[in-house]
Design brief:
This protein has 101 residues and is mainly α. The protein is built from 3 helices and no strands.
Length: 101
Protein backbone atom coordinates (compact mmCIF):
# COMPACT_ATOMS: atom_id res chain seq x y z
CA UNK A 1 0.00 0.00 0.00
CA UNK A 2 2.86 2.35 0.79
CA UNK A 3 4.33 1.92 -2.69
CA UNK A 4 0.99 2.59 -4.34
CA UNK A 5 0.58 5.76 -2.30
CA UNK A 6 4.11 6.89 -3.22
CA UNK A 7 3.38 6.23 -6.88
CA UNK A 8 0.11 8.19 -6.79
CA UNK A 9 1.78 11.13 -5.01
CA UNK A 10 4.58 11.13 -7.60
CA UNK A 11 2.08 10.97 -10.42
CA UNK A 12 0.10 13.88 -8.97
CA UNK A 13 3.24 15.97 -8.47
CA UNK A 14 4.33 15.30 -12.05
CA UNK A 15 0.94 16.28 -13.36
CA UNK A 16 0.87 19.53 -11.38
CA UNK A 17 4.40 20.47 -12.40
CA UNK A 18 3.69 19.53 -16.01
CA UNK A 19 0.57 21.62 -16.24
CA UNK A 20 2.34 24.60 -14.72
CA UNK A 21 5.00 24.43 -17.40
CA UNK A 22 2.22 25.08 -19.87
CA UNK A 23 1.95 25.17 -23.58
CA UNK A 24 4.90 27.51 -24.11
CA UNK A 25 7.38 25.10 -22.59
CA UNK A 26 5.83 22.24 -24.53
CA UNK A 27 6.35 24.14 -27.78
CA UNK A 28 9.98 24.87 -26.83
CA UNK A 29 10.63 21.18 -26.18
CA UNK A 30 8.91 20.22 -29.42
CA UNK A 31 11.00 22.72 -31.41
CA UNK A 32 14.22 21.46 -29.80
CA UNK A 33 13.34 17.85 -30.56
CA UNK A 34 12.58 18.72 -34.17
CA UNK A 35 15.93 20.53 -34.54
CA UNK A 36 17.81 17.54 -33.13
CA UNK A 37 15.93 15.14 -35.41
CA UNK A 38 16.73 17.26 -38.48
CA UNK A 39 20.43 17.57 -37.66
CA UNK A 40 22.40 15.85 -40.47
CA UNK A 41 24.77 14.14 -38.03
CA UNK A 42 21.87 12.67 -36.08
CA UNK A 43 20.11 11.54 -39.27
CA UNK A 44 23.28 9.91 -40.62
CA UNK A 45 23.87 8.13 -37.34
CA UNK A 46 20.27 6.89 -37.24
CA UNK A 47 20.46 5.65 -40.83
CA UNK A 48 23.75 3.88 -40.14
CA UNK A 49 22.32 2.23 -37.03
CA UNK A 50 19.22 1.13 -38.96
CA UNK A 51 21.36 -0.30 -41.76
CA UNK A 52 23.57 -2.20 -39.34
CA UNK A 53 20.51 -3.47 -37.51
CA UNK A 54 19.09 -4.84 -40.76
CA UNK A 55 22.40 -6.54 -41.54
CA UNK A 56 22.64 -8.17 -38.11
CA UNK A 57 18.98 -9.21 -38.23
CA UNK A 58 19.57 -10.86 -41.60
CA UNK A 59 22.61 -12.71 -40.30
CA UNK A 60 20.71 -13.82 -37.21
CA UNK A 61 17.79 -14.95 -39.37
CA UNK A 62 20.05 -17.15 -41.48
CA UNK A 63 21.95 -18.53 -38.48
CA UNK A 64 18.76 -19.44 -36.65
CA UNK A 65 17.03 -20.89 -39.69
CA UNK A 66 20.10 -23.04 -40.46
CA UNK A 67 20.22 -24.46 -36.94
CA UNK A 68 16.50 -24.76 -36.24
CA UNK A 69 15.36 -25.73 -39.74
CA UNK A 70 16.08 -29.43 -39.22
CA UNK A 71 14.10 -29.58 -35.99
CA UNK A 72 10.92 -28.00 -37.38
CA UNK A 73 7.97 -29.74 -39.00
CA UNK A 74 8.49 -30.19 -42.73
CA UNK A 75 5.84 -27.61 -43.67
CA UNK A 76 7.55 -24.91 -41.64
CA UNK A 77 11.05 -25.97 -42.76
CA UNK A 78 9.93 -25.77 -46.40
CA UNK A 79 8.65 -22.25 -45.89
CA UNK A 80 11.93 -21.21 -44.27
CA UNK A 81 13.91 -22.71 -47.15
CA UNK A 82 11.76 -20.89 -49.71
CA UNK A 83 12.27 -17.58 -47.89
CA UNK A 84 16.01 -18.21 -47.68
CA UNK A 85 16.20 -18.99 -51.40
CA UNK A 86 14.12 -15.95 -52.33
CA UNK A 87 16.33 -13.64 -50.25
CA UNK A 88 19.59 -15.15 -51.49
CA UNK A 89 18.49 -14.59 -55.11
CA UNK A 90 18.09 -10.90 -54.39
CA UNK A 91 14.46 -10.83 -55.48
CA UNK A 92 13.07 -10.13 -52.03
CA UNK A 93 14.94 -6.99 -51.11
CA UNK A 94 14.56 -6.25 -47.46
CA UNK A 95 11.52 -7.49 -45.56
CA UNK A 96 11.95 -5.18 -42.60
CA UNK A 97 9.48 -2.53 -43.73
CA UNK A 98 12.04 0.20 -44.18
CA UNK A 99 11.81 3.01 -46.68
CA UNK A 100 14.20 5.45 -48.24
CA UNK A 101 12.70 8.54 -46.68
Amino acid sequence: MRYKLTFVVGLAAGYVLGTRAGRERYEQLKKSARQVAQNPAVRNTAETAAHQGRQYAGKAYHAVSDKVGDRMPEAVAGRVRSLRDRNSNGAGGDDWGTSNT
